[in-house]
Write a structure and sequence with these properties.
Elements: H1 2-6, E1 8-11, E2 14-17, H2 18-48, H3 54-72, H4 74-83, H5 94-118, H6 124-140, H7 147-180, H8 185-212, H9 222-245, H10 259-301, H11 314-331, H12 333-342, H13 348-367, H14 374-388, H15 396-428
Antiparallel strand pairs: 1-2
């Protein structure tokens, strides 16, 4: 507590904690990494399929990442802040929690920078959870880590890509049977795509109502929630139908099939699913950047009290959201290329199936408070789409590199966090 109290300096008449300053800097760095890697792979299917441009992806990300973080991100933020470590261990030494969270942000951000430079779509959730577990187990003691919670999170990393892949496989199979492999794919796309639009609106709105709106003071009973979700799904479907009706057959196409015109319909749908994926990512993965920052702020604001409740200031969210957008703009193109074109060749119809499956999986997980990996979910969904077309449609070399990067991520985050933790202890005192 004395170390925390002494870590203040005067800035134009304001007393500011050096630890808050470091937390903001490291939090921005981590958020930049989330944008460069995680948001990039979240947008990879949309950009890789040609449905939207990189500029459009950035605009969509700015709007819906923030919306997801505000409306549904609170559950996951709580898991990152309080679920992985036993707070009671730090009651007499709150400065160790501050050092550890600073080290975790710096370690996870560093690993994401390395992975993004190589074009590896790694998990930001893996990175930050591994970092927190690393400093907790080695720097403080194995009793500091809530191993049961860590085990649950680790299990989700296995279950979530399998679930997303299965949903994507079934979705794309339905597209093949109802639209793609029919005698008139263009007309059938106009006929059936509104139903898929309804599904997007329903899934996103339902979890937002159940788990998100309580953070802004709104709550509904189960029946009302389902009725509102259905209503929003119908609204999205109607809007989509109006837009789709304006799409005409390209006269330069093969007059017997009109696949290009059919894919243009799915391009419209991909805009909606890209927004859904950005919302899903914001609700789940923004917490990876702001969770440790929020934990540091809570300790400093309370004067070293562990577990004290403090309102999360808006600027913390702005740090996370701003850093994420900047990371996407400056360094996201490499990961977008890997996810969008490296695993399997995507078209708007294939990208839609993958993105909707991933969004549904991530948003549902966010609603339960479980910080699943958006990266694993999306890659699993893309693999599911590829498998629906046969094993030959998958680039196994790229897939092997991705799996290897996943295996490295957790120990890399843990190791760097341990190193940074002891460096901070040496600089500021044990």
């Amino acid at each position: 507590m004395d170390i925390i109290a002494s870590g203040y300096f005067d800035f134009f008449g304001y007393s500011i904690s050096i630890f808050i300053v470091l937390a903001v800097v490291f939090g921005l760095f981590m958020a930049w990494g989330v944008g460069a890697n995680d948001v990039a792979n979240a947008m990879g299917t949309s950009v890789g399929s040609g449905a939207i441009t990189i500029k459009q992806a950035i605009v969509i990300a700015v709007i819906f990442e923030f919306a997801g973080a505000i409306l549904a991100g609170g559950e996951v933020t709580a898991t990152i802040r309080k679920g992985i470590l036993d707070a009671a261990i730090f009651t007499d030494s709150p400065h160790l929690l501050v050092y550890g969270m600073l080290a975790s942000l710096l370690a996870a951000g560093t690993w994401l920078m390395i992975a993004s430079s190589l074009g590896w779509p790694v998990s930001t959730t893996h990175s930050i959870v591994g970092a927190i577990v690393g400093f907790g187990a080695v720097g403080v003691g194995v009793d500091a880590v809530a191993w049961g919670k860590v085990g649950t999170i680790a299990m989700s990393w296995i279950v979530s890509p399998i679930l997303a892949g299965s949903i994507a496989f079934m979705l794309f199979r339905s597209l093949q049977n109802l639209i793609i492999d029919t005698a008139n794919p263009f007309d059938n796309a106009k006929k059936y795509v509104p139903f898929y639009m309804f599904l997007v609106g329903f899934v996103i709105s339902l979890v937002t109502i159940f788990k998100g709106l309580k953070h802004v003071g709104l709550s509904f009973d189960t029946g009302t929630s389902y009725m509102l979700a259905i209503g929003f799904g119908v609204f999205v479907s109607l809007i989509g139908t109006i837009v789709i009706r304006r799409i005409k057959i390209d006269p330069s196409e093969n007059e017997d099939f009109h696949f290009t015109s059919m894919e243009r319909i799915f391009s419209v749908l991909m805009i909606i699913t890209a927004a859904a994926m950005a919302f899903a990512h914001g609700s789940n993965d923004v917490a990876n950047a702001i969770g440790p920052l929020a934990a540091i702020y809570g300790v400093i604001e309370s004067g070293g009290l562990i577990g004290a409740k403090s309102a999360l200031p808006v600027w913390v969210l702005l740090v996370g959201g701003g850093g994420i957008v900047f990371g996407l703009v400056t360094y996201g193109h490499k990961v977008i290329a890997t996810v969008g074109t490296g695993i399997t060749q995507l078209t708007p119809s294939r990208g839609f199936a993958a993105t909707l499956a991933a969004a549904a999986t991530v948003v549902i997980a966010s609603g339960t408070g479980l910080p699943v990996s958006t990266t694993q979910v999306l890659v699993g969904a893309v693999l599911g789409v590829g498998l629906a077309r046969g094993l030959a449609a998958l680039d196994t070399r790229v897939i092997n590199k991705i799996f290897l990067s996943w295996l490295i991520t957790l120990p890399a985050g843990a190791l760097m966090s341990i190193i940074f933790f002891f460096m901070l202890k040496g600089m500021f005192g044990a």
